[in-house]
Amino acid sequence: MSEEISTEGYLDMDLLRFTTAGSVDDGKSTLIGRLLYDSKNTFEDQLEAVERTSKQRGDEHTNLALLTDGLRAEREQGITIDVAYRYFATPKRKFIIADTPGHIQYTRNMVTGASTANLAIILVDARHGVIEQTMRHAFIANLLRIRHVILAVNKMDLVDYEQEPFEKIIEEFYDFASRLDNIVDIEAIPLSALKGDNVVDKSEQMPWYQGPTMLYHLENVYIGSDYNHVEARFPVQWVIRPHSDEFHDFRGYAGRVAGGVFKPGDDISVEPSGFTSKIKSISTFDGDMQEAFAPLSCTITLEDEIDISRGDTIVKGNNPPKKDQNIEAMVCWFSEARKLTPRSKFYLRHTTKEVKAVVQEIRYKVNINTLRKVEDERDMALNEIGRVSIRTSAPLFFDSYHRNRTTGSFILIDAQTNETVGAGMIV
Amino acid sequence: MEEEDNKRHSYQVSHLKQLESEAIFVLRETAAQFERPALLFSGGKDSIVMAHLARKAFHPARLPFPLLHVDTGHNFSETLEYRDKFVEEIRAELIVGHVQDSIDSGSAQEEKGPTASRNALQTVTLLEAIEDNNFDACLGGGRRDEEKARAKERFFSHRDDFGQWDPKNQRPELWNIFNGRKHHGENFRVFPLSNWTEMDVWQYIKTENIPLPGLYFAHEREVFERHGQLLAVTDFTQPQGDETVEKKLVRFRTIGDVTCTGAVESDADDLDKIIQEVATARQTERGTRADDKRSETSMEDRKKEGYF
Known about the structure:
The complex is a heterodimer of chains A (427) and B (308). Chain A has 427 residues and is α+β, with helices and mostly antiparallel strands. Chain A has 7 helices and 21 strands. Chain A has a 6-stranded mixed beta sheet with strand order 2-3-1-4-5-6, sandwiched between helices. Chain A has a 6-stranded antiparallel barrel with strand order 7-8-13-11-10-14. Mean pLDDT of chain A is 88; it is low at 1-7. Chain B is an alpha/beta fold and 308 residues long. Chain B has 2 domains: 11-200 and 297-305, Rossmann fold (3-Layer(aba) Sandwich), CATH 3.40.50.620; 213-292, no CATH class. Chain B has 10 helices and 10 strands. A 6-stranded mixed beta sheet of chain B has the order 3-2-1-4-6-5, with helices on both faces. Chain B has a 4-stranded antiparallel beta sheet with strand order 8-7-9-10, with no helix packed on it. In chain B, helix 4 links the parallel strand 2 (67-71) and strand 3. In chain B, helix 7 (198-208) packs antiparallel against helix 8 (271-280). The longest helix of chain B has 19 residues, at 15-33. The model of chain B is unreliable at 1-9 (pLDDT under 50). At the A-B interface, helix 2, helix 3, strand 2, helix 4 and strand 7 of A face helix 2, helix 3, helix 7 and helix 8 of B.
């Protein structure tokens, strides 16, 4: 890694998670390889392995895309099958990349990668412009509530580094993206991953472009907070009862704050029982905390002894979560073996709670190529996305996904196979 | 504007704090979703960090699961000393699975020849320990940045009745919702440190002041070179043919079975120097592991067989 890394500053660095999406030949793996290589985040033994393999395959250049290929089948076929996570750091930030394959049949992976990302890089081939898949990627980024997008116009070397094709792509993309209301910030960057233009180093071939390089933008984009610090939500994961002499009466509720701020002395209530109490302490191994907010893990103790178990939610004050057994959600379907149909039953897992659920109705499906609503459909197949109404065996305490990614999301589990067959975002 | 800045500042969480919080969440999910989990403890830095995080996750109670050590019998003596002291300090339960027992019972076949390693046999012993103790989840210190097959690993990694990993049929993992449902006989490997890098682990060790075995720090030791690797002279690793023994200042970047763990020349004898060394390293830490050099897909193959 780079020698300039100041190990002092490392402790204060923040974290940016981003996802990359592109079609099969957009050069996505090359772009990530270039980002890792030019920012000096690759190791000699990795590079040697890549150089060896490039030679064996008869590639003309050292094929940086090989840096990101993981499984044997992927290397043999030259494609990416699964979401791969990659890590790199610069003196300013630490990055987690969810590298997702772009083929149409892998919508499921794109959704998975996007579910934890703050930013999405959407790749476009400068020669081909905005195509159906570009719109699909933008739609998924928006659906999963990614606020920041980099429109990476790649292969500029193949259009002679000219401004006109770049401008045309921007215009087409903005025209479409203006309808996606979760995306608040789009940065379009002309680049060549193969030649290294505007990835880490500024290109000398495109004097007409005054904007940032991709790495500069990744390092400096203001992510704000993806977390909701207003509506206080604490799903209980585990009850800590030491039964030791020293901590004889200790009863703590362990979990990770999903929203809002909790402080000692705060009035709280517990769902679903409705019992109320006050926070006695926010306890950790390192001592008590004065406040806890998302995404911190901690243990809450209360003034009163009330019955709380895993799956309950501790909430505060004036803005309680919604409580309902009927929920409306956008669902992405993951199963190849089974279709989603009305009346089908699942386990539904929402925060730390699991309930039984039955699908009431498929309201509509989204044709992810035209982005039009398709009504009167009887079922949803692998990689399809649609709006569904669901009834649960017990009430859920939730927020809309738009307000809170943690309390607004759930997964569906097949009761026979135990597979995760769907992901839902509550409307 | 100033108020806005204050707001930003007060809810800023450093990346190490985020990783810690995520790992604690995963450890608690494991305790809650499984009947009999175990934490795989090798005495290496990743498993030490994981055990430290487990202590934090359940404080002030003890760990709600035992530590499981798969012992190849080819240990650095420092590792065992450290293990026993550590287990006593955190008052945890320790279960040891011996590779020697698997060899004696005939379930594992020892490799022959001067470069034989028991590394592959660990998988047999691990699977036997899982069965004997009815473990339904094993917490491992694996990180996705270690090796390319691990880059695609889930936090909750499903294994079939035979302990095998099917890379093409993994459950999608969204947000922080983990699906640990399984059929009888199946089990899970859980990796709370998935999103950590080697640098993160070292920085965390420093921040948290976690003691480590002395092997990680530079010391003088008799070593010899084999296939581009520096191996320590021990009862289990002896120079062959024209391999010559030299005394060198070395340290270990990973600690595994002595027969396949290479040393690196280094004068990093404290955490700050190690962190500096990691920051400027030109080789991945698994570059010192002979087990990964056997073929381009050796890790992938071992995982499919049931390796961590």
